[in-house]
């Protein structure tokens, strides 16, 4: 398992692409990857699904393939209970 906390926070766009490439390689080799990211647009490049927590409680589990369908913004803005 690989756990990453904001791995692209202080890097350039080019370096971000390299980080995502390394994550894809890790996933292709069967490694479970968990990322903590504030940038939802970045997670769409490598995520299989999103799990949203608010105040230590899980408020959403959204498959990337299904898209957010309007659910993501409310979860991210703290409107979902």
Describe the fold and architecture.
By secondary structure, the chain is an alpha+beta fold. It folds into two domains: 1-47, no CATH class; 48-81, no CATH class. The chain is 32% helix and 26% strand. It contains three helices and four strands, in the order βαβαββα. It has helices spanning 13-28, 40-43, 71-76; strands at 2-5, 33-36, 49-54, 57-63. Strands 1-2 form a two-stranded parallel sheet. A hairpin with a 2-residue loop joins β3 and β4 (57-63). The longest helix is centred in the first third of the chain and has 16 residues, at 13-28. It is globular and about 30 Å long. The model has no long low-confidence stretch (mean pLDDT 79).
Round the mean pLDDT to the nearest integer and report it.
79
Could you state the order of secondary-structure elements as H and E? EHEHEEH
Tell me the fraction of residues in β-strands, as a range.
25-35%
Describe the largest sheet: 2 strands, parallel
User: Into which percent range does the helicity of residues fall?
Assistant: 25-40%
- Provide the spatial order of strands within the biggest beta sheet: 1-2
What overall geometry do the principal axes of the alpha carbons give?
Answer: globular
Question: Would you report the number of β strands?
Answer: 4
Evaluate the radius of gyration: 13 Å
Output the structural class: alpha+beta
How many helical elements? 3
Integer tally of domains: 2
Which stretches of 5+ consecutive residues score pLDDT under 50? none
